[in-house]
Amino acid sequence: MRIFSGIQPTGRKHLGNYIGAIRQYVEGQDRGDPAIFCIVDLHAITVSYEPAVLRERVYDTTAILLAAGLDPERCILFRQGDVHEHTELCWLLSSVTAIGELNRMHQFRDKSLAQRELVSSGLLFYPVLQAADVLAYKAQEVPVGEDQREHLELMRDVARRFNSRFAPEDGEILVVPEHRIPEVGARIMDLQEPTRKMSTTGGTPEGTVYVLDEPKAIEKKFKRAVTDSGNEIVKDPEKPGVSNLIDILAAARGTTPAAVEEEMRTARGYGDLKVAAADAVRDMLSPVRERYEELRGDEEALETALETGAEKARAIAAQTLAEVRDAMGVGPRR
Ligand code: TYM
Hints:
Bound molecules: ligand 1
Low-confidence stretches: none
Radius of gyration: 21 Å
CATH class of the largest domain: Alpha Beta
């Protein structure tokens, strides 16, 4: 079983990233042979950014992933820009990707509207590079949050189209991957605006809980979380704030929303739910923050881990690239 996922080097990873994705990576590293995780610096340059900051953010994100429990001995962790096969495969796959498909992507629409300066063509191409990330490793399973569902559908279509156009009739070259979206916590919402997903760029500062937040900051953000009218603690589309807190508490404790509702039947009000959620999230994130502080100081060690990961990743991706080029008639016959 090949597991692959990617994460942007925004540095300030939040509770949504942690519950929706990072925890699944850690769980996946004992099932994947080996599981592969990529810090996608080439995706990060599709919106305005500072070069020096980007490099730092890659180390921040690497340290967060290691602190959360990824072990470079048991998985492959690397920086996308170190493995050139991703960009080459992206170009090759563009020949089986329609412009219309890319134009329709919600994330492209949202992000291009949010750009104050130039809307880069890289932003339009973003999902093709993402398809290349996964398809280069013939991954079967991709752990992601709900917001990546559409990108996963696109890469499945791209893989199928590539196979039907270029693979021999009796076999396939690219593997059509499946997403792995968690049952609870696939879409953590902003604590201040619970109808919007928690996000580094689109959320509110008070409503976004960061993995590296101090316990006091976590408690404060939960205390001020927006709830809804009434006082019943149940999941309900009419109660987005309360529903989000129930999901967060369930995900942090590893139980179900129904179990949280049951437990909260004797609560005195929303305040109890907020305190319980804050405690659970604080207990979940504190050890990660503490390990992060230790790891982030040694940039050389982080760089070595990424370089070693890139070598292993390259060996796998190069194999796929050779097959893809050969099937497409690019370069000399093998
Ligand atoms: P990124 O860096 O924005 O997010 C990393 C992961 O966190 C998940 N996530 C959430 N989960 C639950 N609730 C939320 N509020 C929330 N916000 C984010 C995301 O779904 C994601 O799994 N395009 C990807 C990076 C990428 C990738 C890939 C992913 C590049 N190549 C190949 C999978 C496979 C992204 O921007 O993730």
